[in-house]
Amino acid sequence: MLDLNTLYIVSGVVLLLSWFISFQVWRENKSVDGAFTNLLLPSLMLLALFSYSLYLYRVIDIKAGIASLIILSCSILSIHCLQRFFAINSIAIKLFNLVTVCCIIMFSWYTYGESNAHNRLLIFNLQRFLEGVMILWIMFTMDTSNHRFSKHIYLCHALIFITVYPIRTYYLMPLGTPELFKHEWFAIGAMVTGIVSPLLYALGMAYLCSERKALHFSVLKDKAQQDAELRGLFLSTMSHEIRTPLNGIMGSAQLILNQSPSAKVKPYCEAIINSSESLNLLIGKVLDYARLEQNAETGTEEDIELTPWLENLCLLYRPLAQQKRIDFKLNNNLPKKACYYFDQQSVRQVLINLLGNAIKFTDTGQVTLSVEVLSKAPLEHIVRFTVTDSGPGIAASEIEQLKEPYVQSDAGKIKGGTGLGLAISERLLNKMQSELNIESALDLGSRFSFDIRFSLGELSLVEQTKEKADTLTGLSVLLVEDLPLNQKLAIEFMAMDQHQVTLASSGEEAIQILQQQAFDLVLLDMNLPDFSGQEVVKKLNDIDHINSHTPILAFTASLSPDEVKEYLTLGIKDIVGKPIKLEKLRQAIFNSQQQSFSQTSQNVEDILFDASAAQSLSASFAQEEFNAIYDEFIMSLRDKLARCETGFEKQTDETIRTLHRLASTALQLGFNRFGLALKQSERDLLNNKLVFDNEYLKQLWQQSLTSYLKYAREQL
Fold first, then answer.
1. In 3-state terms, what secondary structure has residue 90?
2. 50-53 contacts: CB < 8 A, separation 24 or more?
3. Which residue, 34, 43, 97, 307, has most beta carbons within 10 Å?
4. Which own/partner contact pairs does 420-423 have at CB distance under 8 Å and 24+ positions apart?
């Protein structure tokens, strides 16, 4: 049985915790109706507990009914909190308050007038039950779509009231007065009243306020986005409208300057032209900034050889630097023929802004543009661009503010400008997952730098490939493969080494092509829709064709000792295992063109998910394509396994082909253990073992999928 003294102590601790929660909620949400009223609830409950302690320890002669009367009064406050929060104006709440007041009066009478414990119990339980019904009514009649979690808390609270107090009445009413206070359901009611209810009230209001604040922030965010779009639209429209008459002013002033013989007119015309050019520059900057705010997308990436691109850019600024008699240098520390895919328009605009500022603010000394590679990965480099000047420098207190629009340093206010150049540069860099770093001090010049991750362009890949002694380039290759994923991967990998690839999707098509066109190499899948790879080789050996001496590589996931022996017996030069790996493919191609033979088979590690396979794929595909490959395989797998289960006895050949394709794809995607199991099922059917354990495959797939999802979450 629950001990009332223990409940008394625990209730005190919980009420203090509820008070602190309610106080924090009120302090952070003072403007929310109902938050302050909710703070009064634990305060009054603490008062009720204090009055009960006076009765319990006989400090003064006071009846325990005082505590119950305070709790009944709190019931009106609890419903009032919800009424204020949801702005409810209903006669139901007024009726509830009236009934509660009547219960308080009747409870007082049976406490201080005609003392009757059973009537007090009945009145108290009835009022608590009605409070639960009232909370339930509010939660179901009000729009709580934006308050789902808090709604669940209040519903739980209401259900406890509706369930506990009727049961309490049922068990306690037949008992005599002494037994009534000793029964466990009396203690359960005390626990709900003094512990569960106050805590749920505090948590419910806390989540109501939190969810309303989140909704408010969401509305403010949407409004701010709409305001930004409208502001950008306004700026771009006004800039365009101003630029049209401005061009007319500049053109007219130039005509007057060229045609008027008067020397007095010349300075006025030049002043008009210079002022118009300054205004035109300002409009251009505003237009650029407005366009950036409206368009969240980056520009088009192009394959650019960076060194000549930088030299051409610097040609624009050398005359300006010479005019001011300052040195302008380009320190290019890039690899030979460095070529990258990047958004050249965005990078160009950032460098133009930085170089233009550096030359404008530097009166003596030099301006330097430095470019270097910070780190190298197989298919990408991180490149740092740095613009250094010997200008007046920037105070430390001004540096961070310079990235905001229309903000200028003290030197900028003297030299003039829009205050938009660095803001535009920062936003462009953010779209390229970079940021602008500023280092400066007064009278010591400034240093502006940013790092960008560039994918290697075609020329860099060629240069990188030439560094490898065992890599051949520029071969003519016939790829015989029916699986789209393997087709794309093999073509992508061979394109890195400048191989010219011709594609055949079936054995018959491959035989026809080999009779018509000469190749340096044939990469042959050993399980095609019409023939096996072995049958293709045998058919080629039986006919005369121009590729009779062309080496053939087996492209397969079937690498059992017997199968490998069969491939070699047929005269296949080398073996490329699935899942395909770039280095393995390069080595096999290199071996195929040599006199000596070197087998390039591949053992698949027996693990649920091979992360290296996913990393290899992610380097070859865009993120959307990468996700689509895995999604398509995962979504379609169960249906394909079900078809194999129903058709393996009657449609054995079709099932074997399906299993082969599934196994190849699974291994390529890194589901090694699952792919090996599919491969074993394929071998069993090939050996006329009509057994297909779909339950084991489904269980193994579930484990493999769990391992993959864990890897995907780690990447996020």
1. coil
2. 52/8, 53/8
3. 34
4. 420/285, 420/286, 420/288, 420/289, 421/285, 421/353, 421/354, 421/356, 421/357, 422/353, 422/357, 423/289
Q: Cα–Cα distance between 655 and 673 in angstroms, integer?
A: 20
Q: Rounded distance, CA 33 to CA 30, Å?
A: 8
Can you give the pLDDT at residue 76? 87
Residue 673: partners with Cβ closer than 8 Å, 6 or more residues away: 606, 607, 608, 700, 704
Give the number of other CB atoms < 10 A from CB of residue 147: 24
Q: What's the confidence (pLDDT) of residue 232?
A: 61
Asked if residues 451 and 383 have their Cβ atoms less than 8 Å apart, the reply is yes
pLDDT band at 692 (very low <50, low <70, confident <90, very high): low
The DSSP annotation for 127-157 comes to: HHHHHHHHHHHHHHHS--TT-HHHHHHHHHH
Q: How many helices (H) and strands (E) does the chain have?
A: 27, 12
Q: Is-above-0.85 flag for pTM?
A: no
pLDDT digits (tens, 9 = 90+) for 597-608: 444 444 567 788
Pairwise CA distance, residues 150 & 382, whole Å: 48
391 vs 509: CA distance, rounded Å? 69
Query: Per-residue pLDDT for 429 more than 90?
Result: no
Least trusted range by pLDDT, from 76-80, 415-419, 661-665: 415-419
Mean of all residue pLDDT scores within the chain: 78
What span, in angstroms and rounded, lies between the C-alpha atoms of 89 and 472? 82
- 3 state SS of 518: coil
Residue 588 · residue 576 · CB < 8 Å: yes
Q: Beta strand pairing status for 500-504 and 476-480?
A: parallel
Tokens 């595909």 -> residue: 621
Distances (CA, A) of 45 to 69, 109, 201, 501, 616: 11, 22, 12, 81, 63
Q: At 658, which helix (H) or strand (E)?
A: helix 652-669
CB–CB of 200/172 below 8 Å?
no
CA-nearest of 690, 694, 696, 695 to 649 is 690
3-class state of residue 447 by DSSP: strand
Give yes or no for a cis peptide into 261 (omega within 30° of 0): no
- How far is Cα 104 from Cα 130, in angstroms, rounded to an integer? 13
In this prediction, residue 599 carries a pLDDT of 42
CB 307 within 8 A of CB 335: no
Q: Kindly state the tokens that stand for 517.
A: 């066109």
Tokens matching residue 189: 């009611």
Q: Which amino acid is at 701?
A: W
pLDDT tens digits, 369-391: 999 998 887 677 899 999 999 88
Give me the percent of the chain exceeding a pLDDT of 70. 79
CA distances from 560 to 300, 474, 618, 679, 688 (A): 47, 32, 29, 10, 17
367: CB partners within 8 A, 6+ apart: 317, 321, 326, 327, 328, 329, 355, 358, 359, 387, 388, 389, 390
